Each structure stands twice: as C-alpha cells, then as structure tokens.
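Quick one: structure tokens for this chain, please?
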Amino acid sequence: MIDSVRSTVLSIISKDNRGYITPFEFNLFAKQAQLEIFEGLFYTYSNSVNKQNAHLHNNGYTDIPKQIEEAIDTFSTYGILNYNSITGKYDVPDDAYALNTVIYNGTVEIEKIPANKIYNLLSSNLTAPTTSYPAYTQEGNLPPLLNSTITVYPDSIAQTGLVTAQYIRYPEDPKWTYNTIVSGTPIFDPTQPDYQDFELPLSYETDLVIKILQYAGLSIRENEITSAAKAEEGQNAQKI
C-alpha cells in the first residue's frame, strides 16, 4: 500500500508544478500520518459506539464500531513483562500503547485496581489480593505507556510466577525504500531489509494520502494543497 499512497501523493503535489518531496520527507510524513490515524482510532471508536447506542448507526455493512475495532485488533499482541528486582515492578513493553489484559502463569487474569484503592484492599484479609485473585496497579501515562510500570499483588507473584500481557502496540514506522535511481527518479524496491509497509488496513489508504498531503503542503508552503487535504478530511469525518 505504501507505494500506492506515495504515487498518489506525488501525483497531486506535482500537478501544476507545485513541488516535490523526497523519499526521506515522505517517510517522515508517512510515519506521522499513520500515528495520527492510529491514535484517532480510539476516539473514533468511542464516539461511534455512543452513536450506535443512540441508534444513529446501523448494523451489518455499516457497523462502524465493529470496523474500527477490527482495525485496532490489527495491533493486538502478547508479551512477557520483565520484572525489575530493584524497583519491585514489572516494565510495560516499549511498544505498548494500551494494556488490555494482564495474566499470571498463563491462566489467571490479574485485575487492575486504581492506585488510590489498592491500600484499602491490602489492609483487609478479606479483600487482600492472592495468587488465585491477584491485582495490579499501573504507574505512568495511559496512553502512551512509554516508561510505564505495573506493580503486582501479592508480592509472592514476582518471585514465583510469569506475568504476560495482551496489549495494543504502536504500528511499525512505515518506510518506502528504493535501490536505484533512473533519470533522477528513485525506483521502489520492497526487497530492501528496512522496507516497511503501512500497518493500517487498506481501507485507510485515502486517509493516509490526505494526512500526508497536509504535512507536505506545510513543508513546501503550498496552502492550496493543505486546504484541499483538510477539506477532504472534513468530508470523511462527516461520514463517521
């Protein structure tokens, strides 16, 4: 998809000699565009669910919340959480955007507890977490989860158990790669080791084009490109 997106972007930009963006610039804009759309999925999903609950969306082919949920699920993955014996906490994976489920020993789900309530639970023998009913608190931003940690209760889990998490990861940075240049034009080469296509579903190709055009318009100071891209984006937003 990345070559198709780039070809469309260059075709629009080069119309009437409006300018040109290099492969480096395109990859930079592509990264930001994909990240912006990815982060917007969560807000759009919540907004669409609210509309569906208010009977403003239909089911079937126009089940927008389901479509967005499937797009988000593309980035669902599992990972082992590394225990830091110095801090007594588990480190959240660097590529994690949001935690969904935390599991102890592969079978026991660990319940997330707000930090301001955990000490009330710990102070009572009736509510204190156990290895059968463990709990955790999270320290750090949500999302994103960069440099975030979790504390698992009871403490014995840290010494005896394996803690894993099912989480939503960030998309890989897209990279349009080329190997040769013919008459000053780079030729697309997806066999390069650092090649990376967009990870968003194909249905988001138009959104990627629009976002990249916005960044490109700002870069080459072409107000017409930026304005046209924003207008198209507004029309797409009204459809959701």
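Strands lie at 76-80, 82-84, 89-91, 96-104, 108-112, 135-139, 149-153, 163-169, 178-182, 185-188.
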